[in-house]
């Protein structure tokens, strides 16, 4: 406790760009240090822009290092009236200009179930000369076919190897790849994967964890003992030669892991019926 913030609570502060500040903690654990280093990384931000589009409907997502953000939904479907594509494309283009800094974004995927994506790409390239940061955007735009719009369509994009190749060296790609591998293990080799605190603890005691997947929500638990437990688990896995992937609960991969209790592991060797074991 201190005179400003009680234990277990938080307070929001506004930090001004280019103004120095000092941050103090009595104890710096490995997760806090990792988060601090990532926050100081100048390359932090948006890894991929995903535009899902079909006639009269568009969803604009920014896939970043720590979150997936739906920053714009454009719906021009009004009753049974015919859609004016030129006006609709203009609205979508303006949304891109407003929400995306193309000077720092390396790649963009335009996806959809039909040919609208192809037509919008042509429109985008014809208008790009109006925006200085869009110089060279042609080489950074990829087209993908998906069957759905919204979050389902986004998942289709992020499951596509072509999209992953665009962000292969980013934190987003690492998280998505780990989550995809976990899902495949649970489906095809269930003895080599587990989820839930009890099963993961047992796997750690057996030194069986190759990859630990854990959401950042677990490190924000109000129970200080539980926070220390999860930090210790991460450190233990790393000491035994495994790796730990920290997933943001605000990222599409973290949302999936949250549905599996927020903690899971891919194992080095099969451990049958791990849920029934006791050490």
TrEMBL record:
Q: One biological-process term from Gene Ontology?
A: ribosome disassembly
Compartments (UniProt record): Cytoplasm
Top-rank taxon of the source lineage equals Eukaryota
Any one cellular-component term (Gene Ontology): cytoplasm
> Per the entry, which co-factors are needed?
a divalent metal cation
**Which PROSITE patterns does this UniProt record tie to the protein?**
RCC1_2
- Could you cite one Gene Ontology molecular function of this protein? metal ion binding
Keyword terms? Cytoplasm, Metal-binding
Extract the Pfam families matched here.
eRF1_2 (PF03464), eRF1_3 (PF03465), Pelota_N (PF26356)
Q: Which family does it belong to?
A: Belongs to the eukaryotic release factor 1 family. Pelota subfamily.
Name of this chain's protein? eRF1 domain-containing protein
């Amino acid at each position: 406790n201190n005179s400003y913030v009680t234990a277990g609570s938080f307070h929001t502060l506004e930090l001004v760009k280019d103004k120095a500040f000092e941050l103090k903690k009595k104890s710096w654990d490995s997760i806090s240090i990792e988060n601090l280093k990532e926050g100081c990384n100048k390359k932090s931000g948006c890894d991929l822009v995903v535009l899902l589009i079909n006639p009269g409907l568009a969803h604009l997502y920014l896939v970043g290092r720590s979150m997936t953000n739906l920053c714009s939904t454009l719906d021009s479907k009004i009753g049974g009236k015919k859609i004016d594509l030129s006006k609709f494309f203009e609205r979508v283009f303006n949304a891109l200009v407003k929400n995306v800094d193309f000077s720092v974004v390396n790649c963009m995927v335009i996806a959809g179930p039909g040919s609208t994506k192809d037509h919008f790409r042509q429109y985008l390239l014809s208008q790009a000369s109006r925006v200085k940061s869009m110089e060279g955007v042609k080489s950074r735009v990829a087209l993908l076919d998906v069957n759905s719009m919204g979050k389902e369509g986004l998942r289709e994009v992020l499951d596509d190897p072509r999209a992953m190749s665009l962000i292969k060296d980013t934190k987003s790609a690492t998280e998505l790849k780990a989550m995809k591998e976990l899902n495949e293990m649970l489906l095809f080799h269930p003895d080599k994967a587990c989820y839930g605190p009890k099963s993961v603890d047992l796997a750690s005691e057996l030194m069986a964890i190759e990859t630990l997947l854990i959401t950042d929500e677990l490190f924000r638990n109000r129970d200080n003992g539980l926070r220390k437990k999860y930090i210790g688990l991460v450190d233990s896995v790393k000491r035994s030669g495994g790796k730990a992937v920290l997933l943001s609960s605000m990222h599409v991969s973290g949302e999936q892991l949250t549905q599996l209790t927020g903690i899971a592991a891919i194992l080095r060797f099969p451990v049958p019926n791990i849920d029934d074991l006791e050490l």
